[in-house]
Amino acid sequence: MSAAGAADRHRYPPGPMLTAIDHVGVAVPSIDDALALYRDSLGMELVHRETVAEQGVDAALLDVGDSHVELLQPLEPDTAVGRFLSRRGPGLHHVAYRVASVQETLDACAAAGMRLIDAAPRTGIRGSRVAFLHPASTGGVLTEIVQPAEEEH
Ligand code: ZN
Predict the structure, then answer these.
(1) I want to staple 44 with a disulfide (CB 3.0 to 4.6 A). Which of 62, 75, 86, 149 is the partner?
(2) pLDDT digit string (tens) for 135-153?
(3) Is residue 109 part of a domain?
C-alpha cells in the first residue's frame, strides 16, 4: 500500500474515530503508594500530576510508549472513584480511547443509541477534552474518550 493510501485510512472523518488507547485508568487509595509499583518496580516514567476537583480526584500519568496509565486517588470517599474503591477495591477503573474530536465522537455514539454519561465534553487532565460513555452501553467497561490538548500533539 502506498504512503498516501495509509494516510487516507487514518484520516478523520471518515476513518476510525478511535485512534489509540490513550490510557487505562486505575483506582488507587494512594498515588504515592501506587508509584512504588508503577514507577519503581515497572519502571514507568511519571510525567504529570494534577488535582481534578471537578472529578474529585488526584491524578497521575505515567508513560507507556505513546499511551499512559492514569492513577486516580479520590479526594473524598463520596466521589465516583471513592465509591468505586469502597465497592470493588483498587483496580482497573476505565479505558480511554484517543479521538480527534470528542464532540463528533459523542454525537456518533448518541446516534448509535449508546448511553452517555457526559452529553457534552468536559475538561480532563492536561487540558484535554474528555467524555464518558455509560458501561451499560459498553459491555460493562467504563469508557472514556479523550481529545488531547493541541500542545500535546
Ligand atoms: Zn481517564
Answers:
(1) 62
(2) 999 999 999 999 999 864 4
(3) yes
Please write down the HEC assignment for all residues of 88-115.
HCCEEEEEEEEECCHHHHHHHHHHCCCC
The answer to whether position 10 is within a domain reads no
- Expressed in angstroms and rounded, the spacing between residue 125 Cα and the centre of ligand 1 is 8
Grid coordinates of 4: 498516501
Q: What is the pTM of this model?
A: 0.86
Dist. CA 142 → ligand 1 center (Å): 10
* Residues 67-99: tens digit of each pLDDT: 999 999 999 999 999 999 999 999 999 999 999
Looking up residue 117, the CATH number of its domain turns out to be: 3.10.180.10
102 - beta bridge partners? none
Output the CA 4–ligand 1 centroid distance in Å: 33
Q: How many domains are contained in the chain?
A: 1
Distance 95 CA to ligand 1 centre (A): 7
- 142 is in which domain, residue-wise? 16-152
The residue behind cell 477495591 is 89
